[in-house]
What does this fold into?
Amino acid sequence: MGDLLLVRHGETEWSVTGQHTSWTDLPLTGHGEEQAKSLAPLLSGRAFASVLTSPLGRAARTAELAGLTGAIPDPDLHEWDYGGYEGVTTREIHRTRPDWNLWTDGVPPGTEGRPGESPAEVGARADRVLARVADALGEGDVVLVAHAHFLRVLTARRLGLPPAGGALFQLATGTVSRLSTEHGRPVVAEWNSRP
It folds into this structure.
Protein backbone atom coordinates (compact mmCIF):
# COMPACT_ATOMS: atom_id res chain seq x y z
CA MET A 1 0.00 0.00 0.00
CA GLY A 2 1.40 3.36 -1.04
CA ASP A 3 1.41 6.58 0.95
CA LEU A 4 -0.94 9.48 0.33
CA LEU A 5 1.04 12.72 0.09
CA LEU A 6 -0.89 15.94 0.66
CA VAL A 7 0.59 19.16 -0.68
CA ARG A 8 -0.98 22.45 0.34
CA HIS A 9 -0.45 25.16 -2.24
CA GLY A 10 1.98 27.98 -1.57
CA GLU A 11 1.09 31.29 0.00
CA THR A 12 -1.42 33.66 -1.63
CA GLU A 13 -2.32 37.19 -0.69
CA TRP A 14 -5.45 35.99 1.10
CA SER A 15 -3.72 33.17 2.97
CA VAL A 16 -1.53 35.88 4.49
CA THR A 17 -4.53 37.99 5.56
CA GLY A 18 -6.63 35.01 6.66
CA GLN A 19 -9.45 35.61 4.16
CA HIS A 20 -11.48 32.55 3.23
CA THR A 21 -10.52 31.65 -0.33
CA SER A 22 -12.41 29.02 -2.25
CA TRP A 23 -13.40 29.99 -5.81
CA THR A 24 -11.43 33.24 -5.98
CA ASP A 25 -8.45 32.00 -7.95
CA LEU A 26 -5.62 34.10 -6.57
CA PRO A 27 -2.07 33.55 -7.81
CA LEU A 28 0.76 32.55 -5.53
CA THR A 29 2.75 35.40 -4.02
CA GLY A 30 6.50 35.52 -4.73
CA HIS A 31 7.01 33.83 -1.37
CA GLY A 32 4.37 31.25 -2.29
CA GLU A 33 6.27 30.43 -5.49
CA GLU A 34 9.47 29.99 -3.47
CA GLN A 35 7.61 27.72 -1.03
CA ALA A 36 6.38 25.59 -3.93
CA LYS A 37 9.86 25.31 -5.46
CA SER A 38 11.31 24.33 -2.09
CA LEU A 39 9.05 21.25 -1.98
CA ALA A 40 10.80 19.61 -4.95
CA PRO A 41 13.44 17.82 -2.83
CA LEU A 42 10.70 16.31 -0.63
CA LEU A 43 8.93 14.92 -3.70
CA SER A 44 11.82 13.99 -6.00
CA GLY A 45 13.15 10.49 -6.31
CA ARG A 46 9.72 8.92 -5.93
CA ALA A 47 7.61 7.28 -8.58
CA PHE A 48 3.98 8.29 -8.13
CA ALA A 49 1.10 6.08 -9.16
CA SER A 50 -1.09 9.19 -9.48
CA VAL A 51 -0.78 12.98 -9.14
CA LEU A 52 -4.02 14.95 -8.80
CA THR A 53 -4.49 18.68 -8.31
CA SER A 54 -7.30 21.02 -7.54
CA PRO A 55 -8.50 22.73 -10.73
CA LEU A 56 -7.56 26.12 -9.24
CA GLY A 57 -4.43 27.86 -10.50
CA ARG A 58 -2.70 28.20 -7.13
CA ALA A 59 -2.66 24.41 -6.72
CA ALA A 60 -1.69 23.65 -10.32
CA ARG A 61 1.14 26.21 -10.13
CA THR A 62 2.37 24.70 -6.86
CA ALA A 63 2.47 21.24 -8.46
CA GLU A 64 4.39 22.60 -11.44
CA LEU A 65 6.95 24.48 -9.35
CA ALA A 66 7.40 21.47 -7.03
CA GLY A 67 8.40 19.39 -10.05
CA LEU A 68 5.32 17.19 -10.20
CA THR A 69 4.57 16.09 -13.75
CA GLY A 70 1.51 14.50 -15.29
CA ALA A 71 -0.85 16.10 -12.77
CA ILE A 72 -4.53 15.63 -13.51
CA PRO A 73 -7.04 18.26 -12.31
CA ASP A 74 -9.81 16.80 -10.14
CA PRO A 75 -12.81 19.06 -9.49
CA ASP A 76 -13.46 17.36 -6.15
CA LEU A 77 -10.13 18.70 -4.85
CA HIS A 78 -11.26 22.35 -4.92
CA GLU A 79 -11.37 24.20 -1.62
CA TRP A 80 -14.42 24.30 0.66
CA ASP A 81 -17.05 26.54 -0.96
CA TYR A 82 -17.23 29.37 1.58
CA GLY A 83 -20.41 30.81 0.06
CA GLY A 84 -21.20 34.18 1.65
CA TYR A 85 -17.91 34.10 3.59
CA GLU A 86 -15.68 34.17 0.50
CA GLY A 87 -12.99 36.81 1.08
CA VAL A 88 -14.04 37.33 4.71
CA THR A 89 -11.83 36.59 7.72
CA THR A 90 -12.92 34.60 10.76
CA ARG A 91 -12.36 37.72 12.87
CA GLU A 92 -14.84 39.65 10.72
CA ILE A 93 -17.39 36.81 10.92
CA HIS A 94 -17.09 36.73 14.71
CA ARG A 95 -18.19 40.37 14.91
CA THR A 96 -21.74 39.30 14.04
CA ARG A 97 -21.56 35.56 14.88
CA PRO A 98 -19.20 35.26 17.85
CA ASP A 99 -19.79 31.52 18.25
CA TRP A 100 -19.42 30.65 14.55
CA ASN A 101 -17.27 27.61 13.78
CA LEU A 102 -16.64 26.51 10.18
CA TRP A 103 -16.26 22.89 11.25
CA THR A 104 -19.70 22.62 12.81
CA ASP A 105 -21.72 25.48 11.29
CA GLY A 106 -20.67 25.56 7.65
CA VAL A 107 -21.33 28.79 5.76
CA PRO A 108 -24.28 30.83 4.47
CA PRO A 109 -25.07 30.92 0.75
CA GLY A 110 -23.13 33.40 -1.31
CA THR A 111 -23.83 35.35 -4.45
CA GLU A 112 -23.27 34.38 -8.07
CA GLY A 113 -24.39 30.77 -7.64
CA ARG A 114 -22.03 29.94 -4.79
CA PRO A 115 -24.26 28.07 -2.33
CA GLY A 116 -21.57 27.33 0.24
CA GLU A 117 -20.91 23.89 1.69
CA SER A 118 -21.54 22.13 4.96
CA PRO A 119 -18.85 19.98 6.58
CA ALA A 120 -20.79 16.89 5.43
CA GLU A 121 -20.77 18.07 1.80
CA VAL A 122 -17.02 18.65 1.87
CA GLY A 123 -16.64 15.23 3.51
CA ALA A 124 -18.60 13.63 0.67
CA ARG A 125 -16.19 15.14 -1.87
CA ALA A 126 -13.23 13.90 0.17
CA ASP A 127 -14.74 10.42 0.26
CA ARG A 128 -15.08 10.47 -3.54
CA VAL A 129 -11.40 11.42 -3.92
CA LEU A 130 -10.33 8.67 -1.53
CA ALA A 131 -12.41 6.12 -3.44
CA ARG A 132 -10.87 7.25 -6.75
CA VAL A 133 -7.27 6.93 -5.53
CA ALA A 134 -7.75 3.59 -3.72
CA ASP A 135 -6.56 1.49 -6.68
CA ALA A 136 -3.59 3.78 -7.35
CA LEU A 137 -2.53 3.48 -3.68
CA GLY A 138 -2.35 -0.26 -4.29
CA GLU A 139 0.29 0.48 -6.94
CA GLY A 140 2.34 3.13 -5.09
CA ASP A 141 2.31 6.62 -3.66
CA VAL A 142 -0.33 9.18 -4.63
CA VAL A 143 0.02 12.97 -4.43
CA LEU A 144 -2.88 15.38 -3.95
CA VAL A 145 -2.16 19.11 -4.39
CA ALA A 146 -4.97 21.18 -2.97
CA HIS A 147 -6.12 23.49 -0.18
CA ALA A 148 -5.96 23.64 3.60
CA HIS A 149 -9.54 23.07 4.73
CA PHE A 150 -10.28 20.48 2.06
CA LEU A 151 -7.10 18.50 2.80
CA ARG A 152 -7.86 18.65 6.52
CA VAL A 153 -11.31 17.15 5.90
CA LEU A 154 -9.77 14.51 3.62
CA THR A 155 -7.28 13.62 6.35
CA ALA A 156 -10.09 13.21 8.86
CA ARG A 157 -12.02 10.97 6.48
CA ARG A 158 -8.94 8.85 5.67
CA LEU A 159 -8.44 8.30 9.40
CA GLY A 160 -12.09 7.33 9.91
CA LEU A 161 -13.10 10.59 11.61
CA PRO A 162 -16.13 12.73 10.75
CA PRO A 163 -15.48 15.70 8.44
CA ALA A 164 -15.40 18.08 11.43
CA GLY A 165 -12.38 16.11 12.67
CA GLY A 166 -10.38 18.15 10.17
CA ALA A 167 -10.33 20.89 12.81
CA LEU A 168 -7.62 18.85 14.56
CA PHE A 169 -5.10 19.20 11.72
CA GLN A 170 -3.64 22.68 11.17
CA LEU A 171 -2.07 22.83 7.70
CA ALA A 172 0.44 25.51 6.66
CA THR A 173 1.01 26.83 3.14
CA GLY A 174 3.71 25.24 1.02
CA THR A 175 3.97 21.99 2.97
CA VAL A 176 3.92 18.24 2.36
CA SER A 177 2.11 15.86 4.70
CA ARG A 178 2.04 12.09 4.45
CA LEU A 179 -0.70 9.64 5.38
CA SER A 180 0.55 6.08 5.57
CA THR A 181 -0.54 2.83 7.19
CA GLU A 182 0.56 0.94 10.25
CA HIS A 183 -0.64 -2.62 10.74
CA GLY A 184 -3.09 -2.04 7.90
CA ARG A 185 -4.67 1.07 9.42
CA PRO A 186 -4.32 4.68 8.15
CA VAL A 187 -2.03 6.92 10.21
CA VAL A 188 -0.45 10.37 10.01
CA ALA A 189 3.20 9.64 9.25
CA GLU A 190 4.38 13.19 8.60
CA TRP A 191 2.74 16.61 8.86
CA ASN A 192 3.54 20.15 7.63
CA SER A 193 6.97 19.16 6.31
CA ARG A 194 9.22 21.70 4.66
CA PRO A 195 12.83 21.29 3.55
